[in-house]
């Protein structure tokens, strides 16, 4: 399975947070993992605001060192967000979902709003932690 890790899931994986259960850890370990540059950007914003201690460069470097592929944001990803029939207000989450759809990935997330959307539309490539 090819997983696109949500920013929060990627951070939990890196720091070994207990919020990421054993089954999710096994799934990540057994999968090709991808992290979007959108997540690097999200980390950069939260780091600048003092909400995250990890720098965007450290996040990117540690994810790559852990074996994740760093995926650039492409115009097709941005365009695909217009096709999403969801009212999720977080632009990063919308871009990650559109990226997963465009690239044939499964978005691994703990985001409650995305998980609720996936419950209503089982065709979306979302897997919860």
Give a quick precis of the structure.
With 129 residues, the chain is an alpha/beta fold. The protein has helices spanning 7-15, 22-29, 37-48, 56-65, 75-80, 91-103, 112-120, and strands at residues 2-5, 32-36, 69-71, 106-109, 126-128. It has a single domain (2-128), classed as Rossmann fold (3-Layer(aba) Sandwich), CATH 3.40.50.
Commentary on this structure:
The protein is an alpha/beta fold and 129 residues long. It has a single domain (2-128), classed as 5'-nuclease (Rossmann fold). Helix content is 52%, strand content 15%. The protein contains seven helices and five strands, in the order E-H-H-E-H-H-E-H-H-E-H-E. Strands 3-2-1-4-5 form a five-stranded parallel beta sheet, sandwiched between helices. Strand 4 (106-109), helix 7 and strand 5 (126-128) form a beta-alpha-beta unit. The protein starts with a strand and ends with a strand. The mean pLDDT is 94.
Q: What does the overall shape look like?
A: globular
> Tally of extended strands?
5
Count of the domains: 1
Helix content: 40-55%
Query: Averaged pLDDT, please?
Result: 94
Outline the biggest β-sheet: 5 strands, parallel
Give the amount of beta strand, in percent: 5-15%
Which class in CATH terms?
Alpha Beta
Under the CATH scheme, the architecture is 3-Layer(aba) Sandwich
One letter per element, helices H and strands E, the order comes to EHHEHHEHHEHE
Question: By helix and strand content, what is the structural category?
Answer: alpha/beta
Question: How far is the first residue's CA from the last residue's CA?
Answer: 15 Å
- pLDDT below 50 for ≥5 consecutive residues: which ranges? none
What is the tally of helical segments? 7
CATH topology: Rossmann fold
Compute the CA-based radius of gyration: 14 Å
| Strand numbers in spatial order across the main sheet | 3-2-1-4-5
Q: Let me know the CATH homologous superfamily.
A: 5'-nuclease
């Amino acid at each position: 399975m090819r997983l696109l890790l949500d920013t929060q899931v990627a951070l939990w994986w890196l720091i070994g947070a207990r919020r990421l259960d054993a089954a999710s850890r096994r799934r990540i370990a057994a999968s090709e993992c991808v992290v979007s540059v959108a997540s690097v950007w999200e980390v950069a914003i939260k780091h600048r605001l003092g909400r995250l201690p990890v720098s965007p460069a450290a996040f990117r470097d540690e994810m790559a060192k852990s074996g994740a592929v760093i995926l650039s944001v492409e115009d097709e990803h941005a365009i695909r967000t217009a096709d999403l029939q969801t009212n999720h207000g977080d632009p990063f989450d919308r871009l990650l979902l559109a990226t997963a759809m465009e690239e044939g990935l499964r978005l691994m997330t703990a985001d409650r709003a995305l998980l609720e959307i996936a419950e209503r539309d089982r065709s979306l490539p979302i897997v919860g932690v």
